[in-house]
Amino acid sequence: xxxxRRIFLILTVLAPFTGVxxxxxxxxxxxxxxxxxxxxxxxxxxxxxxxxEGEAATNTKLEHGNPAYNALVKKHSYxxxxxxxxxxxxxxxxxxxxEDGKLTGAVFVGVPK
Length: 113
Fold this sequence. Notes:
Blueprint: H1 2-19, H2 23-28, E1 32-38, E2 43-48, E3 51-52, E4 55-56, H3 67-73, E5 78-84, E6 87-97, E7 103-112
Antiparallel strand pairs: 1-2, 1-7, 3-4, 5-6, 6-7
């Protein structure tokens, strides 16, 4: 339940930023989102709206060279530009942490540039 509240809070915080975009350009812009699991080494896309080579990017890993990776393994959020599957995004990543303080996954929300 705490994880769901955290995801809701993240999406609530991001909503005002997406509302700044005009309705005409919003119709052309797709918000992307991902929920990652974490196995102690890799963040794996469990659910995602991202596509890789025309197919769903489910079960693909967050690249270790992605600037969000280093922040997430330290249990920190990351906001900034990232390149995913050949596209540039303004992105927000947040860690998912269990009640006992263990890193269990992450969430991603991004807007294509």
